[in-house]
User: What shape does this take?
Amino acid sequence: MSRESEAESPGDAAPLPGILSEELFAELVAFRRDLHMHPELGNQEFRTTAVIKARLEKAGLRPRVLGIGTGLVCDIGDIGDTGADGSAASGTPVLALRADIDALPIPDAKSECPYRSTVPDRAHACGHDVHTTVVLGAGLVLARLHREGRLPRPVRLVFQPAEEVLPGGAVDAIAAGVLEGVGGILAVHCDPRVDAGRIGLRQGPITSACDRLEVALDGPGGHTARPHLTTDLVTAAARVVTDVPAVVGRRVDTRAGLAVTWGRIESGHAPNVIPQHAELSGTVRCLDIEAWRTAPDIVVAAIDEVANLHGAKSEINYVRGVPPVVNAPGMTELLRDAQTLRRGAATVEDTEQSLGGEDFSWYLEQVPGALARLGVRTPGERTVRDLHQGDFDADESAITVGVELFTAAALMYAADA
Assistant: This one.
C-alpha cells in the first residue's frame, strides 16, 4: 500500500507532514497482531498496558498507568496546570484521543490466521486492538511533531480498559482525571460494513443506550395438575417475557426506540412440577438520551405490574449501562474535515445510529466529542462479518486511515483553538 510523503496544509495550521513511513506502518501492523494474539478481558489488561507503556516510553513520552492498575494516559506536550474551567495553563483546552484496550470472552474462530488468539475463549472480536494501534500510531507521529516543534498544542492519549464491562471503564478513567484540561475528545470504532479507506460519520446520536436487566420471579410452587392452587410461575415468566416489551413500548414516544429484549429465561426441573423460582435476563436499549434517563422507572414498573397480575413476586436488578454516544456538531465536522484533507470528501459517508452501546458516551457527558466509524472491510470483499463474532478481522490498511484522521484532526483542532 502506498502512503503520501507530503500532504496539504489544514488551513492556517502547521504543514501536515508525511504521516506513516513504511517502517512505522509495518511496526504498527506487528503491534496490532501482537495484541490480537494476546487478548485480555476488561480490567485484566496488564500485558496490553505494559506493551503500550513500553512503546510510548521508547518514544520519549511519560505515560501514566491508571490507578485501577490497567489502562494509561499520556500527554504529548506540556499541558501544565489546569484552570477552574478545565482549560490548560495556556488557556487552550486539550484534545484527547481515546482507545479501548480490552477483548471479548469468545473464542477466535479464524482457523487459518497466523495471528489468531493464543488465549482460549478470548478474542479481539470488536476491533479494540485496531483502536489501540491507531491511537498509539497517532501518538508516535504527534510526538515526532512535538520534538520538531511542529505540534502547536498538547494532545492527550487515553488508553481505556474495560469498555465491554458495564457501566464501562470510561467511568473509572474519568474518575482518574483523564478529562482534566480536555476540551474535546475523539474516538473511532471499527465497522465491518464500511470499506477500508473510508469513515462513517453522524452528528447527534450514533450509538444507543444499553442497560442490563436481571429479574427473579418467585412463587410457592406446586403440581402441574393444580395450577389454580398456586402461582403458575412458568406462565408468569412467559407473560413477563412477552408483555413487558409491549407495555414499555406504549409508555414512551415510539421515536425514542426504548426496547426490552430478553436473552435468557430459566425455570423448573421436571415436567409435572410447577417451580418456585424463575430467572430472566436481557437488555434495555434506547435511541434517545432523555428517554434513557427515565427508562429504569418505566421498565421496573412494567415488570412489577405483569408479575403481580399473575401472582408472582418479582425482584429486579436494573444495571445501568451506558447512555447513547451523542456526537457534537463541531467535533463531528472536525473529523469530516480531517478525513477530507487526507483522503477526499468522497471517503466520508453518512452512517446510521447503531443499537449497540459504547462507553465513549460517558466522556461526552463531560466534554464535546465525536466517534467515527472506521472502515475495516477489504474493498470488494463479499463475506459478511459482524462485530462480536469469532471470525471478525480487519483490513490493516485501516490503521493508516485512523492515524491520518487523528493526526490531521489534532493539528486542525490546535489551529482553531
Notes: Residues 81 and 232 are 64 Å apart (CA to CA). Residues 22-207+325-416 form a domain with the Aminopeptidase fold (CATH 3.40.630.10).
